[in-house]
Amino acid sequence: MSTPPLVVPRRAAPGPVPVHDAVICVAVPALAVSAQHGQMRGDGLDGFYRDGRRLLSRCELTVAGAEPVTVQARLLDAGRARFLAVVRTPGDRGPDPVVTVERVRTAEGGERITFANAGPVRVALPVEIAFGTDLAALSAVAAGQAGADLTAGVSGSGLRWSSGGESSRVTATPAPDAALGASGLLRWGLEVAPGAARTIELRVEPAPAATTAGSARAPVGDRPPPMWADARLEGDDPRAGVLLDASLGDAQALLLRAPEHPADLYVAAGAPWRMGLAPADALWAARMLLPFGTRLAAGTLRTLARLQDPATGRVPGVPRHSGPHLPPLDSGVEATLLFVTVLAEARRWGLPAREVVPLLPAAERCLGWMRAATTDSGLVVDPSADGPVRAEVQAYAYRAAVQGADLLDAHERSGADGWREYAAALRAGFRRGFWLEDPGGGRPALALAAGGRPVPVLSSSLAHLLDTGLLGEGALAPGLLDKGQTEQLGKLFAAPDMNSGWGLRTMSAKTPGFSPFGHRGGAVRVHETALAVSGLAAAGLEKEASALVGGVLDAAAEFGLRMPEIYGGEQRSAGGAPCPHPVACRPAAVAAVGAVHLLTALAGVRPDAPGGTVAVRPISAAPLGAVHLTGLRVAEQPFSVRVSRLGMAMIEEAAPGLRLGT
User: Fold this and answer.
1) What are the strands, taking DSSP E only, across 207-347?
2) CA distance 456 to 507
3) How far is C-alpha 170 from the geometric centre of its chain's CA atoms?
4) Assigned architecture for domain 232-482+490-653
5) Is the pTM of this model over 0.85?
């Protein structure tokens, strides 16, 4: 029997608001969104937000009754945008406007509007700004369910709105010549001399009455200090350094302080939809930023240890889509197993024992949860009784067992040998059940469904199997794949059905159900492509790794060097560009740190701070030419490395006494 076609109604139900072409400024928990023209019209997600509330939805500027013509919109950094516009005046001679309007907007609610006169005579500019807001929750706005504008009241040198216990206000300097609360208008009559400029400064914030005693709302400007200000990448391809700066800037903009523990920092999942803690995303961010210091990892681990279920050891998570061939996976599975990996790797980068030891009980509880989820075959199943056995989960579990054993041994705690035996059994079970032989050389199954039936789908999530190959360093353990299987997976990843030319697809284009915009069904996820790059490079598959590096960097250039959470998996063509996903977070934590991980993989720094050694294994193919990485940290001390065009590495700065490892 054929499946009846899906009938799309004439009026589709409200869904997520497209933001792929929006200008988004972020400094969590604050956010500012507008279209490229810079006007906030209350359309879609337009507005200033703080703590998940839209403080202002309209901020529409007119000069002499007309809107300025915006000629450029760009981000100055993650939290600031600049819009440059021109204004025609009666005194203009010919086609060249002499008055420009510059709007510099900040995520935290500031806007500076500068009117400059390049002409020979004084100009009079009647300026009006129309304001409005619904004080709606971000979740309602995102679903297209915002309310009507509220009526404003005049308050000092600005306007104020209140509804249901929430209030916001906008203030202006200089004070307007007129304020009309009923219509939400502020008016100025500005005169600008030749060669001079006049400025109006706006401030949008929660009104004082909205903040009560005991409120958890952080003061405006209470942002974490710069975390990676010294990080630099210089090299033959100038885009790489700009991408590193932009990606670290996005990560900085997403930093949050743990409630009641302000010294502990973690990264929010992304803007505009996921402005809070997502444990798995936060742990990936902490892991991939370890080359630039261990502070974020320590804060993230302490935060999640406080949230961990003490009875089961599980770190919280939510169901996430797994593509058309598998049911959703609870992200708590990923977070629980990744907790152990981040702690172990943070120790190797230099997290001191005084910070590692208090976190060991939480790591042991994570390992206990993993053992409880393990079947007689030695594999880890989904929490549901009939859930599939996923390849990526086996990779998380194997890493956790091997690195957990290393942690326990290092701190003279019992159980290390048992976890090494567990890892060996898991590896044996994986190699028995997951590798599928075929005339093309074989492939790993994406998962084992009920009854052990393999799901023969190629996905970028299989890059996690390559990540286990890195565990061989330090004589810890071999990976889940043997050498031949690793090389075969590298060939599969290099084929055009997986490598879109802009990065790895989340599902092969040859697979039924493929969609170039499917979150797990064909779109590109940067952090899994980055994992593939580091894993392939470690296995000596540098041609395949280099192709992915070049594709992602080219995609980044098309996105203004701010990587979105996911983007379309259409095949690259001459003169083409990667397609943005209409509702992907941008910035997104895993995309930003994935770009960082891909760039640091060029140098291949492998530290063992407790052992006093560091190895440097660069990609000798040097896909971006010569690179010079500074601002890294190993053993809590500055570290820098230079890689030549021939792929030769030289350490330029390191902690005293740190030896070059093998």
Assistant:
1) 232-235, 255-258, 261-267, 319-320, 329-330
2) 11
3) 31
4) Alpha/alpha barrel (1.50)
5) yes
